[in-house]
Amino acid sequence: MNHPLRFLLLLLPAVFLAATSFAREDHRAYADLKFEECAECHIGEGVPPNHGGGWQKEHRIPAAGPSRNCFECHGMSWCQDCHQGGGIQASLSRSQWKRDIEPESHRSDWISIHPIQAQSSPQRCQRCHEAKFCSDCHGRLNVTSRTIRDHANSGSTQSYIAAFPDQHAAEARRNLASCQSCHPEGDVCLTCHSAKLGLRVNPHPRDFKGSRIRSRSNNRSCRVCHDS
Amino acid sequence: MPHGTEYPLPALKEGMTVMRGTRLSFPIFLLLLLLGPWHALAADFRFQSSTQYLWYTDPFKNEDQSDIVQYFNIGASKIDKAGRFSAFGYGRISQQFGSETDVLLGDDEDILGRLYFLYVNYSLPKQRGDIRLGRQYVAVGAGAGTIDGIRVDVRNLGPVVISTFAGYDVRFAETTDDTSSGNYLVGASAGASFFPGNNLEVSYLWKIDDGDIIREMLGVHADQRILGKAKGYVDWRYDVLHEANSEFLAGATLFLFPGLITITGEYFTSYPTFDADTIYTAFAVTEYWEALGRVDYIVSDQVTLYGSYTHSDYEGPTADTGTIGIKASPKRIANLKGYASVDLRSGYPGDLTGFRISANYTYKKTLLAAGLTHDVFQRDSMTDDFTAKKYWAGGSYEFRKNMTAKLRVENTVTRQFEDEFQGRASVDIRF
User: Fold this and answer.
1) The pTM is what?
2) Domains in chain B, CATH or no CATH each
3) CB pairs under 8 A between A and B
């Protein structure tokens, strides 16, 4: 998996398997149908259902793929309404966060529940939210009300780390985006993990490959901890 | 940086354009521009508007607040005689009434704007592709985003489809649509279908911040349908800067009794990587993977069932998640539709047991809908169980074919609030 070319070579033969298939239907003529009416063809003529129970999670692949045909039925606002909080055609079942309409994946007490989802796979949050979206809200939190694991014992990151150094390392590796949501500049990390001062604890992965990060981004993040 | 004392407020970079407050004149100007000349050309013109009043409780301050929001969605096709030019726009203007603290989060009396897209599309002759200019949402396998720029799609190159885009990277935040002179999003994809039911796409994406490349991604997607009975697919995102596999998904779907039972199996792994403008880009992280199985079963045209099981691994701790759901539209009660699902999650980092029920009923020009969500969750092993309940109800009435009024109210009972009310009332118009 760490050698992209080798992986590509393995992948290509599988893709080029010759096979027949059902033809793709142009859906523009049906764009004004109610969603439920799709079933008339998709059941009656034995066509596999396209928007199944897991569609909310799985639509990313067909929507970004080369054969995408979303726009035969949906306008661009259909994407933006979920991904960026738009609400011109919000259904009654959708809740709101201030002036933004929420996607239905955000359930009941989402402020309290979202850490479970965010820690599961942070990339899924990033499909809609920039890191700034997290830090904008987390910057308003009162630290004494914090109940997440890494701050519950001590009330501050520093005293928590001093008490549980191994646990902090494991949690940070699994949930680094959570650290960033409250410490967007990472200043608190630098008190120990800088090469310039403090404890000088190396935060890099064991097989760290930093040459491209350094060259493409103009040494930008490296200069924070290193002299050159 | 201690909490609550040195938190840096978002600062404007040099050259950054922020669309809020007085600078709202820019999107209004663009919308007027869109409304004006196209109408004069007697193009095929579509207009959609939603005027909304929203009220809610600010969870940080426990204060009632409200917003008035105006949405516009405009489309003009067949602008020229050949019908090659079209234009589309979507945006909103809002004003909040309430506290004036936390101005950067929109808690003030300023008018805020958000322009989702506004672009002109030119269709190449013989359906060879499109050229799209303006603000637009772009998505390829390597990534997605919103740009102020240009997208060119070229089709009918044999089996190959090519798509390229470049423009200012538009970053939506709580109150702003930020673009900066040094921030760009550039991408390209080449897709092909060499056999019936076969798709292959290779894509590339650069995210540039202040002139530096902070994200460089390679995307590869392939899928193959086999005899109308099955589909296999692979989707891979490789982070070129970090030289790491950022995301990998492999799956297969089996269509049994075509159209009735669909069985899906997926393997997904991700290695979180960060933009190279932050020190987190160089920190060690662990890989996450999950295996998923899902079944969709169309019992009849009245009932659909689905269920899924996911096992997640966080390099050590694990979690198991299960979901079952039903969609029903009984013929005995015409125009009634119901949905219900149960979710169970156990393991790292927390547990959740919950269910959701909702139904809607249409009678002539009236739609009534209501729902309930009940969740019991433990955020992590050091916290207690919490219960959250959400009740909502709403309705809409179609005054005229192109005018609908909607009302929705919601109450959420959480560990913080015994009752947290919110709602929205809207009038939607389209012509």
Assistant:
1) 0.83
2) 18-123 (no CATH), 286-431 (2.40.160.10)
3) 416
